[in-house]
Specification:
Length: 255
């Protein structure tokens, strides 16, 4: 799906001003639309083979204050286009469809597998960026409220020293399962010997395959997927169910 053809982000006059580096960025964005939501400037620069400054100049040339505004404009246009071609079902319909799916049994089994992996840790760090950062923060809030040490991490350059100390487990939340920054962080944690659990919308994604335990549920509705309505529900459910299992386990251990 090409940005220029579908979302009118670039007008002809802007395209006429593009340099070779600008076209490298332009083509890279087109090829990686599904990953754009979780990208940072550095991620796009690395994929395009240009500097961070080139990305910023490119965004300003296109009429935006910087990369965040440029990215948000494209994501907004993508959601609008998706909604026009495929009306979103209600949240109740999404939940009912998820709970009745053939995958729900295996989904619950994977949550129990994650519980078995995390029950021996001293607590958990929950990693998430972009739209998943809110889920990570919520998960840490639920776990902490039950007396289980949990810390959300949404800015990955700050995570390394903290996570590699002690016997803390790691839960990674990534809706797409393809976020470059999350995948890099997870790879380092696996190499360091951390117990890792990935909660994603795709069991075949790179992040799901890399983690010790994968908690995943396919999303069937493309428009709802774009809005996050389907993937967010199982992620929240998984975190709350994990919190319940860990809490009950700690009560039994103290009896």
């Amino acid at each position: 799906m090409k940005i220029r053809d579908n979302y009118s982000v670039f007008d002809e006059s802007t395209l006429m001003t593009f340099t070779g580096l600008d076209y490298s960025v332009y083509n890279t964005v087109q090829r990686n639309l599904e990953m754009l939501a979780d990208m940072r400037v550095a991620d796009l620069a690395r994929l395009a083979g240009v500097s961070n400054a080139t990305i910023v100049r490119f965004c300003k040339k296109c009429g935006y204050s910087g990369f965040p505004e440029f990215k948000q404009s494209i994501l907004t246009k993508m959601r609008e286009e998706s909604a026009k071609s495929h009306p979103l079902p209600s949240m109740v319909e999404n939940i009912r469809a998820t709970l009745s799916s053939d995958e729900f049994k295996s989904f619950n089994e994977s949550i129990h597998e994650a519980f078995e992996a995390l029950r021996w840790t001293d607590g958990v760090f929950i990693l998430g960026c972009g739209r998943s950062s809110g889920i990570a923060t919520y998960g840490a809030y639920v776990l902490s409220g039950l007396g289980i040490p949990a810390i959300p991490i949404t800015t990955f350059p700050t995570y390394a020293a903290a996570i590699k100390q002690g016997e803390m487990g790691v839960i990674v939340v990534s809706q797409s399962g393809t976020s470059p920054s999350v995948h890099t962080a997870l790879h380092e944690l696996v190499a360091a010997g951390s117990v890792t659990v990935a909660i994603t919308g795709d069991p075949a994604s790179p992040i799901a395959r890399l983690a010790d335990v994968s908690v995943s549920l396919h999303s069937k509705d493309a428009a709802a997927e774009a809005a996050g309505l389907v993937s967010f529900f199982p992620a929240l459910y998984a975190l709350e169910e994990l919190a319940r299992l860990l809490y009950n386990d700690s009560l039994a251990a103290n009896d």
